[in-house]
């Protein structure tokens, strides 16, 4: 096996499960794996004497190189990230230092009145309500009420994502029992009984 990363990573969950059953650590895990190779394969006896040792050492050295290179790359990326962060912090501090502090200037009465008038004019222009222009397609349509529904002559309704509430005003004297007799897709039939 060439040690292709995509092929070896598919066994990570299996090996992690096996490793969790070896509380003494890596030496116990390796002992179990080598014992498996000796009992269930011809790993030790299938080749010339000592071939297994060369194979194991070459595999461990290759994996050590891969692991060390990956670790160095991670450390380098971390150092570069920290340097960039420090450079950004220094740049931000320099910007903050270059900003001039607020200055207090004394105004004459005439300048103060002129400045106050400008401020008042800005406030009054901002306080005027802006008339919304209606589209041609919106003319003649009813405006929704505050409950995203509509207020009509005989009833009003509001809606949320989960519910709809219909309120009907009944002009009658006496006590009665409200009854809902029919609910359909486009209408509902309700009335007062027992009055």
From TrEMBL:
Keywords: Coiled coil. It comes from the Eukaryota. Residues 11-45 form the NudC N-terminal domain. Pfam families: Nudc_N. GO terms for biological process: protein folding. GO terms for molecular function: unfolded protein binding. GO terms for cellular component: cytoplasm. InterPro entries: HSP20-like_chaperone, NudC_fam, NudC_N_dom. Residues 118-145 are annotated as: Disordered. Residues 61-97 form a coiled coil. This is NudC N-terminal domain-containing protein. It comes from Dendroctonus ponderosae.
